[in-house]
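=== Structure Prediction Worksheet ===
Name of assembly: unnamed complex
Input type: mixed (protein and possibly other molecules)
Chain count: two
Listed entries:
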Amino acid sequence: MPEPDVEAGEVKISARDVQVFYGDNHAIKDVTVDIPDKAVTAFIGPSGCGKSTFLRCLNRMNDTIDSARVEGDILIDGENIYDRGIDPVQLRAKVGMVFQKPNPFPKSVYENVAYGPRIHGLAANKAELDEIVEKSLRGGAIWDEVKDRLDAPGTGLSGGQQQRLCIARAIATEPEVLLMDEPCSALDPIATAQVEDLIERLRGNYSVVIVTHSMQQAARVSQRTAFFHLGDLVEYGATDDIFVNPGDERTEKYISGRIG
Amino acid sequence: MSAASVDAPLDPPPRPKSSLLAPSDRTRRRRAAERRFRACGVAAISVGVLFLAVLAAAIIRSGAPAFTRTVVDVTITLSREQFERAEGQLLKTAAYEAVLIGALQEMLEEREERAPFDAASLRRILGKTGGSLREFFRANEDRIGRPVEFTLPASSRVDGYMNGRVSRDSLTDSRFLKAADLDLVDALAGAGIIHSEFNWPFITGADSGVDNPGGAGIGAAVVGSFFMMLVVLALSLPIGVAASIYLEEFAPRNWFTDLIEVNISNLAAVPSIVFGILGLAVFIQFFHLPQSAPLVGGLVLTLMTLPTIIISTRASLKAVPPSIRDAALALGASKTQAVFHHVLPLAMPGILTGTIIGLAQALGETAPLLLIGMVGFVARGYPDGFVAGFTDPNSAMPAQIYTWASRADPGFYEKAWGGIIVLLIFLLSMNIVAIVLRRVFERRW
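=== Predicted Assembly ===
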């Protein structure tokens, strides 16, 4: 187990000895990792290695799976999110998430973005809400494409637009951490490039954690990379180091395409 | 496999050239199988449509006569003495009928009618009329002593003769109608005194006595069914949807919820008469709710409808993609918010479909009503108001149809078919409402 490297900046999320079980299946083993603020951290690894599972621990989305059990500590800004007193609803307002498959609500573009601010009471009136929606859609780099059809259904947009809409929806609640679970796996190269540009811009304000199957993507967008294999965190460090000088044989094999 | 065979590709064996234009044996067999399957499908649909057509034709052919009635136009002048004498008698309606027959006789004599007639034959031609005559004159005493034009129903046998149900050959002389009377009927029909008209009283009226099929109407039973459906809708939809949402979205999966689930499925298959006897024991004998009341009928049918609604609601909640729930939860919506803001609206079309199927079943149910006294009860009138609609004794459409079908007079047979047509129209309008609502709620995702 490599020592957590905290040079990259202020630590936003720190996980200590995290174990995840799905029934009897031990999906995450002893993961200890520090995720920096205002940077992009990529989780890579072969399918089924537990990277998405670990990601879902960070906003307690695993709570929705009956058989899932999480042990260990995950601290965000020093607070243990698995503490009894923590309300997952409040946690998820602070830790936004974008899913693998774009999943806009079957409502208008406007309603999609406005839903989060509305349930959290972030806008006092219609004008404020309009402002939040516009800001979020601009933040999601989709404003120019949808500003004339805010009333059109969000499900009618193209795949890439839908995913950017989902990102805009996630940042509308002003989270501090943004989790992205293979956000580009359903997108074509052009849409992927747009989303990657967007991630690059989001880095300034958020702690972004992205799960990806594409090594090139991890190399392009992230500053830190964690390599998972069969539930273990094999290696974690600066992206450049991981890709140029992998410390572990398994990392090297995976990156060069010989396992996975 | 040796190493050599991996490195050097094997020489492919020579293959016969095939033509894409000549179908192979496999293709031919596959196509034949496909054709057979399609033929089976078309045949199944055709049989279904044929049955439906036969059924519809039979219902319309047998039920249509119920919507026309044969009436006699007659002008009566009731003198003050006649009125007082009639009111003084024991059999008051009979006295009015005697006046009517007198007036009819006078009219026929004036017209020099050649067909033989007497008071007895006229009495056989006319239906039960005394009641309505008496009602009219008691309500309008100022019309006494002046000529009043009446349109009064003919007897059910004459009605049957005009509709083709009774013919001269099939008629055996009885105290109800003699073959000789038909000459008089023909003559009166030729003169326009007896004619057919649309049977409004059938649609708006209440049930009549067993000897008066001509006066029987289904209106009161329609009202009874309507109030029952209100009870069913108001109770089973909220309870059913709430139970489904809890079971599907919130309840933990354990042996207890499994048990509940199995029992709900079993409940859907319980014979309806069991619910009827439960309703009798619980609602009437224990809670002392009124007998024969649409309220009790509605409660019993609610029990029957609940499993249907719960099962279909759970199915439509399950059909909402989990990604929608995840999206809402990840935004920081609580579980309740995710369900009510996103899942429930998407499940709404399915819930409505299930509800309407449940209501349609309940609407057509007769057996449970047998046990709570809504069958065989003669629905003699309309309820006095909205509340009375729930608590006053009444019948329901299928119960009324069953009552008519079991009566001896063939005139009621016709009414039963007519009642079925009204029931089907009621059902169709319910379905149309459901389809419209579904369109309103339907969204793509």
